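User: Continuing from earlier, I have the next pair ready.

Assistant: Great, send them over.

User: Here they are, in order.

Assistant: Folding the first of the pair now:
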Amino acid sequence: MIIENMSNDFYLILAGGVGAAKFIEGLANVVRPESLKIIVNTGDDIELFGLRICPDLDIITYTLANLVDKEKGWGFIDESFNCLSILKKYYDTGWFNAGDKDLATHIYRTDLFKQGYTKAEITKKICEIFKVKSEIIPMCNESFETHLKTPIGTMPFEEYFIKYQCKPNVISFDFKGSDKANPVEGVLNYINEAKKIIICPSNPIVSIGTILRVKRIKKSLIKVKNKVYAISPIIKGTTVKGPADKFMKGEFRP
């Protein structure tokens, strides 16, 4: 059932992670999927096995394509891990549980990068292939990686999240490339023109906070704050899932 006719209006969504994907999936069931323009965190992006991997872009794409493994919350449904079983013999990065279908996406993306396509252009191509009706937009085309300094060393967010399961304390964050990150063309206009802007229940530091670090996005949102709605991922001081509460107890702010 459609809540309202959105033929001339659209929602702008700021998103990152599994929680955002689940929220967007629900929203797409009550408004036209075509009315959703989704700016996605790319601070989790990482290069492994020589491949360019964009976890949050993929989670949201697979979810809206109705291909995601809902039990895990990431990756493809009915996935196999034959390639990973051999990759573990070659690389000390077997902690990244990339399935065979998921690896195909990473191979395709890496190939397009080598051909000179931007991250936004590649994302659009992947969405078209999977017939995703919403517009999914990376927060920037430039390289932007969130690294965490911990007592056992500095590491990319994905390694902290998956390999170490968020157990080490975080001393500080390093948002590599944030000083060169610019909004994808059209995003600032979307902020001005959107009927409503919704901030998903994503991690305030490493999902939403990274988007806000992209030049001019935070200032543009402040100018239209009357139409910005944020959904907290924290309930009674605790997150439903993920390390957001742990991060927020520190001195870290976007």
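And the other member of the pair:
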Amino acid sequence: MPDWGALRFNLHVPNPNGGTLKVSIQGDEPGYENYQPIGNIDLRVADGRVNPGDLAEIPYPIGYADTDTNRIGYGNVGFETFHVDVPEILRGKSAKLKFELEGNDTVYLDDVFFKSTHLMFGNPTLNGQVARPDAANNANNYLIEKPQYAISYNNNFRAPNWVSWQLNQSWIGNVPRPGTNNGYLPPSPVNRAIYPWRADDNELPNTFGMAQPWDYLGVETINAGLINEIIPERGHLTPVDDRDRHLKDIFATFFTTNVLTQDRGLNRGIWSVLESFASNELVLGQGRELYIISGGYGFNTPLRARNGQEDRLIRVPDHTWKIIVVLEPGQTISDITPETGIITVDIPNNEGVVGTAWTDYLISINELERRIRDAANLDGNTYNYNFCLMCRN
């Protein structure tokens, strides 16, 4: 087993009927001489309810439903990825896995492996260390592997260092954005200013700070009146439209661990245009498969309330960046050549970019690494990244 990374596997369950897929592991370490359970997949439809199909229960009352995580969403149409944590004591050791089916469901199992598929081009090293789910030693480079994307979380900034995700046609559908007039809204009263943002991410340690959805209400403009002013709002890194095949996946983008504080003009302008170019032109138009990583740097500015006094404890980046590796479906890191398409942008996070094009900010990966390394940050740390070595441009 590798030193880091969740167990992942793909399931297709054409007609979820209430069975259970049990996952267990055996190894040479004490306590694991015999198979021990490490996770169950509930073969019922993910519908945002604690009890699927119970019409008396309101689905998705606060946003993403944690009960959906190990239930079948897109998996009744095609293959859906599930993650199971493995015991740390077995890391670096030989082990055996066992999958057992209880019930009469038809289940197709494929692509059993370790480490998120969203990190196919690597877990970027930060100051020589890959992100790991280690609260004591990696609080500012804490790895979260979700089936929908992977995150390096920074507890100092209450924001991600980066988010990485795969994008191909299997991820794209037509589920409307929740919380909008055309999208899902629970019948009970909700605060539409924050719904469906989740106030917690259960994959973060409970000792960590996390941006709350209401932290972005009533915040002051940064550098007001200047060309580089920032009108702060929540900015998705993995976009809603890149995960709109099922409500389970679309709601998963609404954790604030998937958010940087972005300037409104940037977020709704050229950043959105670049997102649309990737999904509509490259994936839907050309049939490409993309591996994307995106983040920020220069976390120098506190997010404050309009009175200027209350620090929301969220740090705002001076710049936002994105790397897009453009492949044909099914290609892997071994298929990268000097002709492989690589898009790298570094865009200032302020109103000064309004009226420009994302192509104005194209740079190389090497240059992006240099800029991040040389940037000042409010916590005084240097962030020396090493992104995909096979993707040099």
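Worth noting for the second one:
The two ends are 32 Å apart (CA to CA). The mean pLDDT is 94.
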